[in-house]
Amino acid sequence: MNDSVFALELIDLHKSFGKTSIIRGATLQVRRGERVAIIGPNGAGKSTLFNLVSGRFAPTSGRILLDGERIDGLAPYRIARRGLARSFQVSNLFTHLSAFENVRCALLWSLGYRYAFWKFLADLDDANDRADEVLEMVRLDKKRDVLATNLTYAEQRALEIGVTIAGGASVILLDEPTAGMSRSETTRFVALIREVTAGKTLLTVEHDMGVVFGLADRIAVLVYGEVIAFDTPERVRADARVQEAYLGSVLADAQATAAGAGGD
To answer: At what angle do helices 125-137 and 99-107 cross, to 10 degrees?
Structure first.
């Protein structure tokens, strides 16, 4: 591992599709073990930024460093093998495999297993034990043998978290992890995210301001492909540029909700 204090660095990152510029000089430095939320209006480029970091898109220009080493332009599987994993907005599970089988698939490479027709998965004790540990971490041990398609929506999202962390990645990207959840489900899920990403670097895109202010150590505000602010929740909340460009009444509503619940 490089001695850089930053787990992830985006340096003057640009991405255009034809003549349309989506990411316009985004720069971001995320420290190891830090939880960072990316917020911004629709069309700001948040998903594109995630796709660049995870290798789904190659940048038009600029650099992306993971633990001090360049990863921009690498294939997604190569980036994953270097220790970065992501979840998606839309469920990305093997729906006709069990919860256990989904997790086991995700961790085989990290344990050194490659394709071999003479090996039976049932005999891989270390992989099976690790899969059970992950399922227990995400509170799905009692749903071990249930097909992913038969899990509730919240359980599927929890399984996606399990699949994302199974390989032992040090940097985790979560794309709108609480989208579509009820308030009670969201509260439980945020606690779960905090627990399973402890000691890891977390980068998340999230629209729920309650989740953002309850989870993030720092918040990056992306507007028209540029990071206009990157600071603690308190300072971002008070930033006039952020309020004008994005937050405004949304923040006021979030503060009122928190105050009504006895929080800040």
So the answer is: 120
Residue 230: the pLDDT is 96
Q: Which CATH fold would you assign to the domain 34-58+75-260?
A: Rossmann fold (3.40.50)
CA angle 224, 49, 27 (to 5 degrees): 75
Tell me how many helices (H) and strands (E) the chain has.
10, 10
Domain positions in the chain are 34-58+75-260
The count of other CB atoms within 10 Å of the CB of residue 156 is: 19
Cα 2 to Cα 65, 82, 83, 243, distances in angstroms? 10, 12, 13, 37
Three-state secondary-structure class, residue 203:
strand
- Output the CA angle 201-206-208, nearest 5 degrees: 130
| Predicted confidence (pLDDT) per residue in 189-242, tens digit | 999 999 999 999 999 998 888 899 889 999 999 999 999 999 999 999 888 888
**Phi, psi of 224, rounded to the nearest 5 degrees:** 50, 40
Q: What are the pLDDT digits (tens) for 78-98?
A: 999 899 999 876 667 888 999
